[in-house]
Design goal:
Layout (H helix, E strand, L loop, with lengths): L1 H10 L2 H24 L8 H25 L3 H5 L2 H10 L31 H12 L1 H26 L4 H4 L2 H12 L12 H50 L1
Helix pairs in contact: 1-3, 2-3, 3-5, 6-10, 7-9, 7-10
Length: 245
């Protein structure tokens, strides 16, 4: 047990954490540079990228094995958020092996290595707690949003199907316009030309502004409550320490 505790102190220490953070950043930078060089017909540095990928694979694999080893509840860690992210950061690089070339496209999943950095951001835990606090409200909002997307698509199809059959000829075709309008993105690739369609679009856009604002307000409120509770907890711990002294 003492050996495992010493290893835990090393893995969770600042030096080991700093090394892993550097590797995550380096991996992301290499991934970006490699994607740019893939446009070249002949890349003299292709072997270098393969070597770097193998190095990242070995180092991240060692980290993953160490974290599994020091965890008392290994199964819970393996299937936890961070455990799955660590695993996904490793698996894509295995497709460098010649026998797995058919699945080489899955190496694109290496982008998920960047999520490993969330382990070292303390505010992420608070954000997760806030999301769990409002998960029912968010689920209700998702369902409501899907209903509005459907109703908006039906409405614009009714107004524009004769004027623009190529863009709004079916409700399914109108779904793209509905999503873009409700999210207030407004690409402008399809838009209404009839008076009824324009009036309907104005109403949909107003509803969309409200839909975008609701989750922001819910999350801000939940984060504030989580921060207040954490401060109360820290104050309680300090009081306990002072009483013990």
């Amino acid at each position: 047990m003492e050996k495992k505790e010493r290893l835990r102190a090393i893995v969770e220490g600042s030096v080991f954490t700093g090394i892993i953070q550097f590797l995550i950043l380096a991996s992301a930078v290499v991934f970006v540079i490699e994607s740019d060089r893939q446009q070249l017909e002949v890349d003299p540095y292709a072997t270098h990228f393969i070597v770097l990928d193998v190095v990242f694979l070995v180092l991240f694999s060692i980290e993953y094995v160490l974290r599994v080893y020091i965890e008392p509840k290994k199964r819970d860690f393996v299937f936890s958020f961070y455990g799955l992210i660590d695993l996904v950061a490793i698996l894509p690089s295995l497709f460098l092996v010649p026998g797995f070339r058919v699945l080489r496209i899955l190496r694109f999943l290496r982008i998920f290595r960047i999520f490993k950095a969330t382990r070292f951001i303390l505010a992420v835990d608070r954000l997760g707690a806030a999301l769990r606090e409002i998960q029912q409200e968010l689920l209700a909002l998702v369902i409501l949003s899907l209903m509005f997307v459907y109703l908006a698509a039906c409405g614009i199809h009714f107004f524009e199907r004769n004027a623009q059959p190529e863009a709004f000829g079916s409700i399914l075709d109108s779904m793209w316009w509905s999503v873009v309008t409700l999210t207030t993105i407004g690409y402008g690739d399809v838009y209404p030309t009839t008076s009824g369609g324009r009036l309907f679009t104005a109403l949909v856009a107003l509803v969309g502004v409200g839909l975008i604002a609701i989750p922001s307000g819910l999350l801000a409120s939940a984060l504030t409550e989580a921060r207040v509770e954490r401060e109360k907890s820290e104050e309680g711990e300090k009081e306990d320490e002072e009483q013990e002294d």
